[in-house]
Design goal:
The complex is a heterodimer of chains A (788) and B (159). Chain A is of the alpha+beta class and 788 residues long. Chain A contains 19 helices and 30 strands. Chain A folds into three domains: 169 residues, 2-Layer Sandwich (Aldehyde Oxidoreductase, domain 4), CATH 3.30.365.10; 188 residues, Aldehyde oxidase/xanthine dehydrogenase, a/b hammerhead (Aldehyde Oxidoreductase, domain 3, Alpha-Beta Complex); 325 residues, Aldehyde oxidase/xanthine dehydrogenase, molybdopterin binding domain (Aldehyde Oxidoreductase, domain 4, 2-Layer Sandwich), CATH 3.30.365. Chain A starts with 15 loop residues before the first helix and ends with a helix. The mean pLDDT of chain A is 97. The mean pLDDT of chain B is 96. Chain B contains five helices and five strands. Chain B starts with a strand and ends in a 9-residue tail after the last helix. Chain B is globular, with a radius of gyration of 16 Å. Chain B has 159 residues and is α+β, with helices and mostly antiparallel strands. Classes of the chains: A alpha+beta (788), B alpha+beta (159). The interface between A and B is large, with 61 and 59 residues.
Chain lengths: 788, 159
């Protein structure tokens, strides 16, 4: 049976039926009887002293139940940060308090000042407009480098400066890198911007707080990627509610891409207000509000230097990055430019020494945190761009230069503290060359030229680190959470299974792919297996879904729990067949005694477990339910080679993506259809970053393109069909599935391919353009071509 | 509040609506039909597309009162009578044309309106037709494939 339904099968997604018929259950689809509505009054200035919030007129408005301000939260904890980075000098980062509602100061446009709860949303909105604010506006700090100049206005007065931390990695290598730069035959330098993005899942955030006064229990329905993390952060650090009195439910969630990992103040407010009012309280974020409250992504400014010897071997890499934190530290913000970025600066290459310096900076902007790839796209982009530039400066082939420097022996310990377990970078490069028909590029270029268009080819590699782990190492690096995953496998008496996972699906198709794993192990139809996720009351404590970790970590927990199930089931089968435990084999859902024709079916064993009349009660307990917590030994390291062909219109600077090819190594594959889809989506977001998207602040700290009217989301006609391939497979050596994770690859690998292609198109046309910052808008491309 | 009447997915319905109640709000809150989603507040994202008298409409950009007496079709009305997935819905499942599912109702309704007027659209025509429908999950690749498949065409060039 599992031959066409287990690991490796392109099973159609079972969750699609409800999504395609309007039967999904997203948070905004939930209405709790008696609910009231909350609307937030937000700061319209980026920096200011909040002298007073006069709610007296607003409180008299129709339908208003209660208005909360910062004063209501003075006794309550702030929104916590989940990662503490230690700086170059061994000091912890500067960590300002993040109040639920602004307390004496507003620090970015969108900072919540008051929350109005009313019978209807319209009444709450009308009342919010009646709140009188007395704010002394201060100059805004927007530019990161200006923010670090002495005398710059401070985002947080209680801090010594706007510098969150100055991180050096590996600090002990600093001198060796300096020496290598001096000794190099050639050093290529590139300064670039990794543009600020807004994650923009299509479902805006929603939170509903509910309170059961009789039991004293709080429930929060919320659009999160990790309900247990929210329960822990909000319960323990903000509101002081113990976990057994707090339930967090994340039902169907309409995309996350990182922005729904974090604990947001609105979640705490709704939970707090529901108890205070003894009524359910619902908040639905409007899109224009999500632009100024969802954590943004990227926003790095980097100088990278690549040193090469006379034979074009890479001898050192040095980077100097400013990373924007925004006005407050979002949940995992400090980890993104450091441990998720610096550790990837070796890329696919055997550079012997590397030094990464990152200055994280507070500004009067929306907090910045993980967005699909989180640190790794920034690492790949700068490295693959500087290699491309180096190849051009040296007059060597960009693919050959990469191949010459590839890591080819595994395991490989990089100079930036990680150990790659497996990979085959030449194989993915070969595959990319094949699927992209690189040999036909010149002919296609000639065709483009006939139309008056400039065709260019961009190639790059990437490596990422997924399934962030292990917990004890992450703890040493500053994580304030564990990074395991959990699963409970409950076998029912008649043989069906329920798998309760700490992972959360918000588009990844876990309800389809996870049963494939269990079905394969037991030898039963995946339709007998149900996945439960997204509810802290129904699943074991898990860390949720981000960092391409669900299958590698969550799937491994499911494997471990299923192994326990099988081990116990074999004992029961042995008893039923009067054989020794060690002689029992399980194949295609049937237990047999090796070397005999004795067998019992899966269902016979599961029934015996719950109707234990003929059962080894003296040895084992009745029932068939097991839990496993899996804490991985290492990251996983997917890698790949990507190529992009573009046409540039020389009259307008408009870039069209003609062809995009991705050859990835994700290790073993459970559902190839879902993997293809994950790569497509990542490439779509990467092309969006490269050509279209950019969250722009003016000098006053106003987000000038905070709507879909102005922020250029990629649309269907911005994309070609993609060629994706994942047939190169070097299985992960340290998880039981041999899987690596595929969720972020597309977003990591695609931006450098696009930019390399555009620079190539312009160079081939005789323009001395070595770099253009993303997004490569027609204006930027045309200006680069036509610079004086 | 006045009562607004219309036909939704072939059934006569009636619910209270203020003058400024949006059609999307009427469907979701008034009728409890939450298959139609709302993804933005500027009429740009297209997740709320429904058909009004056979034409695709962003239901967040139309007052419920404007649809008084109209024939409205939503995602809930796109399955076959026996409850199985309709041709377009089935093509989306077969081609993995959805991930998180949030934009999907609008995509299916826009696809239906395209195929009603152009039963064999080219890839470029499909992409152009979807310019008012945002998806953040799929890179559009499998959505285009799904619509080509629903129109009985191979997705040439799509791997």
């Amino acid at each position: 049976m599992p031959a066409d339904g287990g690991i490796g099968a392109a099973n159609k997604r079972r969750e699609d039926v409800r999504f395609l018929t309007g039967k999904g259950n997203y948070t905004d689809d939930i209405n709790v009887r008696g609910q009231a509505y909350v609307v937030f009054l937000r700061s319209q200035v980026a920096n200011g002293v909040l002298n007073s919030v006069d709610t007296s007129a607003a409180a008299e408005m129709p339908g208003v139940l209660r208005i909360f301000t910062g004063a209501d939260f003075v006794e309550v904890g702030g929104v916590p940060c989940g990662w503490c980075v230690t700086d170059r000098h061994g000091e912890p980062m500067q960590e300002p308090k993040h109040p639920v509602l602004a307390d004496g100061k507003v620090r970015y446009v969108g900072d919540a000042i008051a929350a109005v709860v009313a019978e209807t949303e319209a009444q709450a909105r009308n009342a919010a407009e009646m709140i009188e604010l007395d704010i002394d506006e201060l100059p805004a700090v927007v530019d990161m480098k200006a923010a670090l100049i002495d005398g710059s206005p401070k985002v947080h007065e209680e801090l010594t400066s706007n510098l969150c931390y100055d991180w050096g990695f590996v600090e002990e290598n600093k001198g060796a890198v300096e020496q290598a730069m001096q000794d190099a035959a050639h050093v290529t330098t590139l300064e670039l911007v990794n543009n600020r993005l807004v994650a923009n899942p299509m479902e805006p955030r929603v939170a509903i707080g509910d309170y059961d006064a009789a039991a004293g229990d709080s429930t929060l329905y919320t659009t999160t990627q990790n309900p247990h993390v929210i329960r822990l952060l909000m319960g323990a650090f903000v509101l002081g509610i113990p976990e057994h009195k707090l339930r967090v439910i994340a039902p169907d969630v309409g995309g996350g891409f990182g922005s729904k990992i974090f604990h947001y103040a609105e979640e705490a407010l709704c939970t707090f207000a529901a108890k205070a009012l003894n009524r359910p309280v619902k908040w639905t974020c409007q899109r224009s509000e999500s632009f100024i409250t969802d954590a943004h992504g990227r926003d790095h400014v980097t100088k990278i230097e690549l040193a090469l010897d006379a034979d074009n071997n890479f001898t050192a890499v040095r980077t100097d990055t400013h990373a924007n934190m925004g006005a407050y530290l979002s949940t995992f913000a400090p980890s993104v430019p450091t441990w998720l970025h610096g550790t990837l600066m070796a890329g696919n290459y055997k550079t012997p020494v590397i030094y990464v310096n990152v200055k994280a900076v507070f500004t009067n902007t929306v907090p910045v945190d993980a967005y699909r790839g989180a640190g790794r796209p920034e690492a790949s982009y700068q490295l693959e761009r500087v290699i491309d530039k180096a190849a051009r400066e040296l007059g060597v082939d960009a693919i050959a230069l990469r191949r010459q420097n590839f890591i080819t022996e595994f395991p490989y310990a990089t100079p930036v503290a990680v150990e790659y377990d497996t990979g085959d970078y030449n194989a993915t490069m070969d595959k990319m060359i094949e699927i992209s028909d690189l040999a036909g590029f010149e002919a296609r270029r000639a065709e483009s030229a006939k139309k008056g268009l400039l065709r260019g080819l961009g190639v790059n590699c990437y490596i990422e680190a997924c399934g962030i782990a292990p917990s004890n190492l992450a703890g040493q690096l500053g994580a304030r959470a564990g990074l395991y995953e959990s699963a409970t496998v409950r076998v029912n008496a008649t043989g069906g299974l329920v798998v309760m996972t700490g992972s959360h699906s918000h588009g990844q198709g876990h309800e389809t792919s996870f049963p494939q794993v269990v079905a394969d192990m037991i030898g039963i139809d995946p339709a007998m297996i149900e996945i439960v996720h997204g509810d802290t009351a129904r699943t074991p404590m898990g860390m949720g879904t981000y960092g391409s970790r669900s299958l590698a970590v969550g799937g491994s927990a499911i494997v471990r729990a299923t192994e326990k199930i099988i081990a116990k089931a074999k004992k029961i089968a042995a008893h039923l067949m009067e054989a020794a435990d060690g002689d029992i084999e399980l194949k295609d859902g049937t237990f047999s005694v090796a070397g005999t024709d004795k067998s019992v079916a899966w269902g016979d064993v599961t029934l015996a477990a719950y109707v234990p009349h003929n059962y080894p009660l003296e040895d084992i307990e009745p029932g068939l339910e097991e839990t496993a917590f899996y804490d991985p030994a290492n990251f996983t390291y997917p890698s790949g080679a990507y190529s992009c062909e573009v046409e540039v219109d020389p009259d307008t600077g408009k870039v069209t993506i003609c062809k995009f090819s991705a050859a990835d190594d994700f290790g073993n594959i459970v559902n190839p259809m879902i993997v293809d889809g994950q790569v497509h989506g990542g490439i779509g977001q990467g092309i969006g970053q490269a050509l279209l998207e950019h969250a722009i602040y003016d000098d006053d700290g106003q987000l000038v393109n905070g709507s879909y009217m102005d922020y250029a989301m990629p649309r269907a006609d911005d994309m070609p069909f993609f060629s994706v391939d994942h047939s190169c497979q070097t299985p992960c050596t340290h998880n039981p599935l041999g899987v690596k994770g595929c969720g972020e690859a597309g977003a990591i690998g695609s931006p450098p391919a696009v930019v390399n292609a555009v620079v190539d198109a312009l160079q081939r046309a005789g323009h001395d353009v070595t770099h253009i910052d993303m997004p490569l808008s027609p204006n930027r491309v045309w200006s680069a071509m036509n610079k004086a | 509040m006045p009562q607004v009447e219309m036909t939704v997915n072939g059934k006569a319905v009636s619910a209270k609506a203020k003058g400024n109640t949006l059609l999307s709000e009427f469907l979701r809150e008034g009728l409890g039909m939450t298959g139609t989603h709302v993804g933005c507040d500027t009429g740009q994202c297209g997740v709320c597309v429904v058909h009004v008298d056979g034409l695709p409409v962003k239901s967040c950009n139309m007052f419920a009162a404007e649809a008084e007496g109209a024939e409205v079709t939503t995602i809930e009305g796109m399955a076959n009578e026996d409850g199985t997935l309709g041709v377009i819905q089935q093509a989306f499942q077969d081609n993995h044309g959805l991930q998180c599912g949030f934009c999907t109702p609008g995509m299916v309704m826009s696809a239906a309106s395209l195929l009603a007027e152009n039963p064999k659209p080219t890839e470029a025509e499909i992409r152009a037709h979807l310019s008012g429908n945002l998806c953040r999950c799929t890179g559009y690749h499998n959505i285009i494939k799904s619509i080509l498949a629903a129109s009985g065409q191979d997705a040439q060039g799509a791997v």
